[in-house]
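User: Now give one protein:

AI:
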Amino acid sequence: MSYSPTPPPPLSRATLVIGLYGAMGIVAFLVAAGRGDPDLYRLGGSPAAWQLGAAPGLGLALGLAIVGLTRLATRHFQWARELHASFRDLLGPLTAREIVILALASSIGEELLFRGALMPWLGIWLQAAIFALLHVGPGRRFLPWTVSAFVLGLLFGALAQWTGNLGGPIAAHFAINFLNLRYIVGEPALPAHS
């Protein structure tokens, strides 16, 4: 009788997401440590108490405004409906737990890397351009996603600079990803609105 070991189970999507964005956080820490400032959360010294306290609320307001704009675009523009359908096909079904993990891991990992580590080193414009390049999808139909990532990179960067910390950008990024992922996987693309 021969023994054949049972192969390990495949990694879950949640494990892969945590690994990817965890690695992004490690790269962010290494970049920040290499430039001599390993504090990724606070930018340029000690923000005032109002900045630390207000940043997440400001970020949430920004995130909700962006989500509202994406809903309007999906309702009124064909390119937005096609993008919605493309993401729905690309993502497949996601559980509520996977949506929370994806939104939380991506908002923390990407903000630590782009706004926390790269922006103080490369500036607001270049970090936004690199952020946009990370959001290039498979095909021209994803171009609006790439352009919006550039604009969001600038907005998140400006918010981080204004408040002196990453609380606002993380909150905005989480709200956008969480609400849009729920919408994409839960709602088929809407027909044109007249």
User: Anything to note?
Assistant: The two ends are 70 Å apart (CA to CA). Helices lie at 13-34, 49-76, 78-91, 96-122, 124-134, 143-163, 167-186. The chain has seven helices and no strands. The mean pLDDT is 89.
